[in-house]
Amino acid sequence: DQQVKQNSPSLSVQEGRISILNCDYTNSMFDYFLWYKKYPAEGPTFLISISSIKDKNEDGRFTVFLNKSAKHLSLHIVPSQPGDSAVYFCAASEGLNTGNQFYFGTGTSLTVIP
Amino acid sequence: DAGVIQSPRHEVTEMGQEVTLRCKPISGHNSLFWYRQTMMRGLELLIYFNNNVPIDDSGMPEDRFSAKMPNASFSTLKIQPSEPRDSAVYFCASSQLAAGGRGYGYTFGSGTRLTVV
Q1: Cα separation of B108 and B92, whole Å?
Q2: B residues 39-78 near A, CB within 8 Å?
Q3: Is A82 helix (H, G, I), strand (E, B) or coil?
Q4: Is the pLDDT score of A98 beyond 80?
Q5: How confident is the model over A2-42, as pLDDT tens digits?
Q6: Distance (Å, rounded) from C-alpha B41 to C-alpha B34?
């Protein structure tokens, strides 16, 4: 069963506008979350993380929000740029007791239109 | 560091043939993961190793799949016999299992695109 879900397989946004990518999880023991970005023919690369002790983490144009009560996190990209067009995966971890294992969503393909 | 190195980048094989995918993790990383990417399941964990020991292989779809990590710098994922439904991109990833090791999650290789015809 998919413990991390990204219900939007694709998203299109105009350049300069905000992109919002959503992720839901079912396991309340998850306490660490990551977003990865993947270009075609490349492996996923780390983008931004957030620990459950925080509800927001910001890195430049990228901000991740965590709503623990709703088991929901989102990635905001402002302003969106054509180079942001990629597949974005969210991932969650339950902690070192599980061997540092991350569970991934199915990904959202973002297209930023120039 | 050259990152996680996977070979081959592309593999086309006939149904029934044996396929071996290879991975060299980042030096110093003590966890290694094999993932398969499909449209339906996204990044699906097949198996992972800590300190060269297989910890969880519950994601391996069938007995046709096997993985080994004979030493800290090399791992293989073997499919024997291969079937068309095994066609996917297979990723290897490594990480440092430590208190600070979750900071950046995994470092992924570029993947092997497997096509079984």
Answers
A1: 6
A2: 39-45, 48, 50, 55-56
A3: helix
A4: no
A5: 899 999 999 999 999 999 999 999 999 998 899 999 998 89
A6: 14
